[in-house]
């Protein structure tokens, strides 16, 4: 079996020891190539090359961003791509949060995750994974617009300036960006489910789209804005039609419960096949915790059984 291991040396918890143990273990079972990412988008280039070279497997050693880029490279030919036409993917967590691997049940310890991967390879174990797609970009566990993406953008800027990604950094940044929102009582985003214009919801200040639950983790604490989201179903949506202080704080507190947010300002949609987001002005957008710029129109769709995962 021919495989490529893609290592992100800048990922928060990726170490040389982890990389060496992983490569030593995999070389006993695989004909192995290794590549380190050097710039943003590099993993997408490597995933595209792995597909074109007809490799059997690509292993990501890094965080959610590395996995997202790889999957977008593997599936770049479009939403009609069949999972059997591209290399399978495997993941060994090396980022700060590792939302996808935690939701899949892959151990956080990279050595244990490597052991699970070796068992899957020897047993031929593969699981299909449904994804989401925002315009031309696939996402594995989340996408978002408005305040959610604005916070991620600010955190990325802080990390580029040498700050370490910690729960405290996210909390401080979220508070600062919340109070910087231009109009907290009337959001700019309108959500329109496919085929249901009568179900249109406007005035949203934040939209979180989820492919699984939890949506993310604050340290060890799971946050669940969409507690019923599932890889094997469509996409779930959480939104707020007011960013006034009381409803916003209430929703954030309720995310830490198993029931998730509720209340008259909460918009909650389950098992959606697709929808459109329109904005009165360009708003920040993110996929899998990666800020992708400002948009005033995006289309979002669920892509069932998009790729196979070895774990």
Automatic annotation (TrEMBL):
<dbReference type="InterPro" id="IPR016064">
    <property type="entry name" value="NAD/diacylglycerol_kinase_sf"/>
</dbReference>
<dbReference type="GO" id="GO:0004143">
    <property type="term" value="F:ATP-dependent diacylglycerol kinase activity"/>
</dbReference>
<keyword id="KW-0418">Kinase</keyword>
<dbReference type="GO" id="GO:0005886">
    <property type="term" value="C:plasma membrane"/>
</dbReference>
<dbReference type="InterPro" id="IPR001206">
    <property type="entry name" value="Diacylglycerol_kinase_cat_dom"/>
</dbReference>
<dbReference type="InterPro" id="IPR017438">
    <property type="entry name" value="ATP-NAD_kinase_N"/>
</dbReference>
<dbReference type="InterPro" id="IPR050187">
    <property type="entry name" value="Lipid_Phosphate_FormReg"/>
</dbReference>
<protein>
    <submittedName>
        <fullName>Diacylglycerol kinase family lipid kinase</fullName>
    </submittedName>
</protein>
<dbReference type="Pfam" id="PF00781">
    <property type="entry name" value="DAGK_cat"/>
</dbReference>
<comment type="similarity">
    <text>Belongs to the diacylglycerol/lipid kinase family.</text>
</comment>
<keyword id="KW-0808">Transferase</keyword>
<feature type="domain" description="DAGKc">
    <location>
        <begin position="1"/>
        <end position="138"/>
    </location>
</feature>
């Amino acid at each position: 079996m021919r495989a490529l291991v893609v290592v992100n040396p800048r990922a928060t918890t990726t170490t040389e020891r982890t990389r060496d143990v992983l490569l030593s273990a995999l070389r006993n079972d695989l004909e192995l190539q290794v590549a380190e990412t050097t710039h943003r988008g590099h993993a997408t280039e490597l995933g595209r090359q792995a597909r074109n070279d007809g490799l059997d497997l690509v292993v990501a050693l890094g965080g959610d961003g590395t996995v997202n880029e790889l999957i977008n490279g593997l599936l770049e030919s479009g939403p009609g791509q069949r999972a059997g036409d591209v290399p399978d993917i495997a993941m060994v967590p090396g980022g700060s949060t590792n939302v996808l691997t935690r939701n899949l049940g892959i151990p956080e310890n990279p050595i244990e995750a490597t052991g699970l991967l070796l068992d899957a390879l020897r047993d031929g174990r593969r699981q299909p994974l449904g994804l989401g797609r925002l315009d031309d970009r696939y996402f594995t566990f989340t996408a978002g617009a408005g305040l959610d993406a604005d916070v991620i953008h600010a955190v990325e800027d802080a990390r580029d300036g040498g700050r370490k990604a910690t729960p405290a950094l996210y909390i401080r940044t979220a508070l600062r960006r919340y109070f910087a929102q231009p109009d907290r009582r009337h959001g700019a985003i309108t959500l329109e489910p496919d085929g249901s214009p009568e179900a249109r919801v406007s005035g949203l200040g934040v939209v979180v789209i989820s492919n699984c639950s939890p949506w993310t983790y604050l340290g060890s604490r799971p946050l669940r804005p969409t507690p019923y989201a599932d890889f094997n179903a469509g996409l779930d949506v959480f939104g707020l039609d007011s960013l006034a202080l009381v409803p916003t704080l209430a929703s954030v507190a309720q995310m830490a419960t198993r029931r998730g947010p509720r209340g008259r300002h909460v918009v909650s949609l389950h098992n959606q096949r697709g929808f459109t987001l329109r904005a009165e002005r360009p708003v920040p957008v993110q996929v899998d915790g990666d800020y992708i710029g400002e948009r005033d129109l995006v289309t979002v769709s669920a892509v069932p059984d998009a790729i196979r995962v070895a774990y």
